Amino acid sequence: MPPPVFGDEFNDDVFGPTQWDVIKGNPTVSDGKLMLSGGATRTEIQSKARFPSGILHLAIESSGWKSQHQTTDSSFGFEIWTGSNGQCHFAVVFIANGHLGVLRSQPDVNNNCSGDPEHQAFLPISNWDAVRAAGTIFLTLMWSPSGITLHLSDGGLNHGQTVYRAEANPPVSLKLRLNADMGETFEIGFLRLYGLEEQSILVDDFTPQPEQGKSFWFHNRLGGDRGAIEGPGSGNVIFGEGMVTAQINSGTDSLRGVWTALN
User: Fold this and answer.
1) How far is C-alpha 171 from the geometric centre of its chain's CA atoms?
2) What's this model's pTM, rounded to 2 decimal places?
3) Domains and CATH numbers, the chain
């Protein structure tokens, strides 16, 4: 399995300054988790590096997930403030009230921006109340020039999704940004960013369909583990919670697979 292009398992006792910048607040690391606790102000961090696209995997725990009718500024994903005056705002983020947020400013001829982004989209995630009920959410956010797919799971039977393909999709490289709003607390178990050359496929629905000859990633919605298989051909993918058999059909670009066993 190729390593992520960016990742943090938060196994150190000190928050890693080599990969992250602290924008606000006091993030801490303990027991293999990153704690983002917004008190009187937000706690917000961003990666030092920028990324043109990618597949982001996060495990996030909170006892205070908002309903889709409530407001929050807590968000997790890709985001940047840029431009000559630093006011051009671009984002592809999971908002902690069960929405996908997509923002794209339109800079003027001097690369300046003012006001809210000209292009904005806020899409509700299906089955949000069931997904958030257990407190822990496994996130897969796939951002590419052609579109955005956000999938959430509680690590069990509940999962939700939304898809966006329109003009608000940012055309610039973004940083990873994790933001806890005032009065809200989140624990991040892991963060892994993979390149788009490796496709992410949910074992329960096997979408999107991959191209023949590529390597394929399988995400186990039961345990959050990942495995890989090279195509064309067939074989087994072993996860912490079970096993998947998958085959790339000869001469086609379709993938089929079924659960064959559970531990």
Assistant:
1) 18
2) 0.76
3) 6-196 (2.60.120.200), 200-262 (no CATH)
